[in-house]
C-alpha cells in the first residue's frame, strides 16, 4: 500500500469516527427528544382521578383546543413528560369521545372549518369563518352565551385573528381577511382577548397594519378594557374587560394567560365561556419538531391544570379539551434504543383522523362515543342551556 493511500484511508476513518462522536454528542446536548427519538421520561405521580359528573347543566364553560393535537401527540407527551405509566392532566378528565373532523369541502379539514363547526354547529368549507355559503353570519356559541348575559373570553398562543379564535368571534368568507376579523373582534363585546401579534389592531403609526388608520386597541381602552402589549404587564382586569396582544416570541405562557382571563371574567354571576387555544401543537407537527411539540403539549397541559383547579373549586364549570384536527400523521414506533420510541411523520399537512375529546364537570357525561365536530357545538350549547335560544334579529 502506498504511503499516500495509507494517509487518505487514515483520514477517512478519522473523519467517520469524528462524525460519529459528534452525532452522539449533539444528541446528548439536544435533550430528551432530539430528532426522531422520543425519550421516555422518569415516572411522575398521577394526578388525582376525577369522578364522572352526571348533572346536565353547567354555568361556565372552559373549552381548550390543542390545534393539530391527535391521539399520538397526546401519547407522545404522556410518555415524554410522565413516564410509561403516567398520565397528563388532560387524560385525567373521565368523559371521553372521538370527534370526526371533515369539512363540507374536504375530508381533511383546516382550522377555520373545524372551529366553525364547534362554534356554530354548521359544517362549512375549509377557510370559511362562521358564515354560510351565501355569506350570512352563523350565530356562534359565544354570541348565544353573551346574548344570555354570560361573559366571554378568547385566549390563544396564535394571532388572536387566526382561524380558531376567529370562528368564535367573527364572520368572514376567508380566514385570510384578518384585518376585518380584528375589526369584528374589537366590536364583538367579548370581554377578554388575549393572544399574539397586535399589528392587525393598530395603525401604521403604531407599528400596525391597519391601512384604515383605526387604532382598535385605543378604541377598546376607551370602551373600558384594560389593554396591554407588554407581557410583563399582564394581569387580570378589575373592569371585567381585558385586551392583551403580545409579540409571539415574547408572550406570557398559556397557563398565565388562562389565569388572567379567568380572574377577569369568572366573577360574572351569569357565568362565562372561555376558549383556550395552543397553536404550538399544530406548528410543531407541521414542521416535525418533536421537542417543540412536547414543550407545547406541556404548556397546554398546564393550562388545563389551571382550568381544572378553577373548575374543582367552582363546581359549576364544564371543562372540555379537544382538537380541531390532527397534524403531521404522527406515529410512535419501536426503536432500537432503550427507553425511547421512534417518531415518524407521514405528512407536513393536516390529516383526516378523528381527534380525541376529554371532558369533566356538569354536562360532560353527554360526550360519549364517536361524534361529529358539529355535535360538540350542540352538546356545549345544551350543557349551557343555550340550545333553545333564538338568535333571530
Ligand atoms: Zn395547521
Structure, described:
The protein has 393 residues and is α/β, with parallel strands linked by helices. It folds into 2 domains: 1-30; 41-383, 3-Layer(aba) Sandwich (Alkaline Phosphatase, subunit A). Helices cover 34% and strands 19% of the residues. A hairpin with a 6-residue loop joins strand 11 and strand 12 (340-345). It is globular. It starts with a helix and ends in a 10-residue tail after the last helix. It binds zinc ion (ZN). The site of zinc ion has 6 residues, from helix 9.
Short descriptors:
alpha/beta, 2 domains, ten-stranded mixed beta sheet, about 20% strand
Poorly predicted spans: 27-34
How large is the radius of gyration? 23 Å
Secondary-structure content class? alpha/beta
Shape: globular
Query: How many structural domains in the coordinates?
Result: 2
Strand composition percent:
15-25%
Ligand list: zinc ion
Overall strand count:
15
Mean pLDDT: 93
Helix percent reads 25-40%
Determine the N-to-C terminus distance.
93 Å
Return the CATH architecture of the largest domain. Answer: 3-Layer(aba) Sandwich
- How are the strands ordered across the major sheet? 6-7-5-4-8-2-9-14-3-15
Helix and strand sequence: HEEHEHHEHHEHEEHEHHEEEEEEEH
Topology-level CATH name of the largest domain: Alkaline Phosphatase, subunit A
The CATH C-level name of the largest domain is Alpha Beta
CATH superfamily of the largest domain: Alkaline Phosphatase, subunit A
Largest sheet at a glance?
10 strands, mixed
Amino acid at each position: 500500500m502506498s504511503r499516500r493511500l495509507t494517509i487518505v484511508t487514515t483520514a477517512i476513518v478519522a473523519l467517520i469516527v469524528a462524525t460519529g462522536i459528534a452525532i452522539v454528542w449533539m444528541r446528548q446536548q439536544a435533550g430528551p427528544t432530539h430528532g426522531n427519538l422520543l425519550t421516555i421520561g422518569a415516572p411522575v405521580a398521577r394526578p388525582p382521578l376525577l369522578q364522572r359528573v352526571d348533572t346536565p347543566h353547567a354555568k361556565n364553560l372552559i373549552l381548550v383546543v390543542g390545534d393539530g393535537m391527535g391521539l399520538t401527540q397526546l401519547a407522545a407527551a404522556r410518555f415524554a413528560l410522565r413516564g410509561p405509566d403516567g398520565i397528563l392532566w388532560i387524560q385525567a378528565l373521565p368523559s371521553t369521545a372521538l370527534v370526526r373532523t371533515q369539512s363540507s369541502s374536504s375530508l381533511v379539514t383546516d382550522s377555520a372549518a373545524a372551529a366553525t363547526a364547534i362554534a356554530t354547529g354548521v359544517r362549512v368549507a375549509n377557510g370559511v369563518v362562521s358564515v354560510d355559503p351565501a355569506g350570512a353570519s352563523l350565530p356562534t356559541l359565544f354570541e348565544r352565551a353573551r346574548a344570555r348575559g354570560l361573559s366571554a373570553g378568547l385566549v390563544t398562543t396564535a394571532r388572536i385573528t387566526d382561524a380558531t379564535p376567529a370562528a368564535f368571534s367573527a364572520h368572514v368568507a376567508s380566514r385570510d381577511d384578518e384585518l376585518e376579523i380584528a375589526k369584528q373582534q374589537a366590536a364583538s363585546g367579548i370581554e377578554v382577548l388575549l393572544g399574539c401579534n397586535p399589528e392587525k389592531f393598530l395603525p401604521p403609526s403604531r407599528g400596525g397594519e391597519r391601512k384604515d388608520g383605526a387604532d382598535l386597541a385605543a378604541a377598546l381602552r376607551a370602551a373600558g378594557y384594560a389593554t396591554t402589549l407588554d407581557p410583563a404587564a399582564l394581569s387580570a382586569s378589575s373592569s371585567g374587560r381585558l385586551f392583551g396582544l403580545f409579540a409571539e416570541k415574547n408572550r406570557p405562557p398559556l397557563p398565565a394567560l388562562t389565569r388572567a382571563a379567568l380572574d377577569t371574567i369568572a366573577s360574572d354571576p351569569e357565568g362565562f365561556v372561555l376558549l383556550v387555544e395552543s397553536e404550538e401543537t399544530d406548528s410543531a407537527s407541521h414542521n416535525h419538531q418533536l421537542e417543540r411539540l412536547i414543550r407545547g403539549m406541556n404548556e397546554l397541559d398546564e393550562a388545563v391544570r389551571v382550568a381544572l383547579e378553577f373548575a374543582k373549586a367552582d363546581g359549576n364549570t364544564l371543562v372540555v379539551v379537544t382538537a380541531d384536527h390532527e397534524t403531521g400523521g404522527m406515529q410512535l414506533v419501536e426503536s432500537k434504543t432503550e427507553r425511547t420510541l421512534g417518531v415518524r411523520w407521514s405528512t407536513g399537512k393536516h390529516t383526516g383522523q378523528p381527534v380525541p375529546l376529554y371532558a369533566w364537570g356538569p354536562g360532560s357525561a353527554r360526550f360519549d362515543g364517536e361524534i361529529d365536530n358539529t355535535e360538540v357545538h350542540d352538546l356545549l350549547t345544551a350543557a349551557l342551556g343555550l340550545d333553545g335560544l333564538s338568535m333571530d334579529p
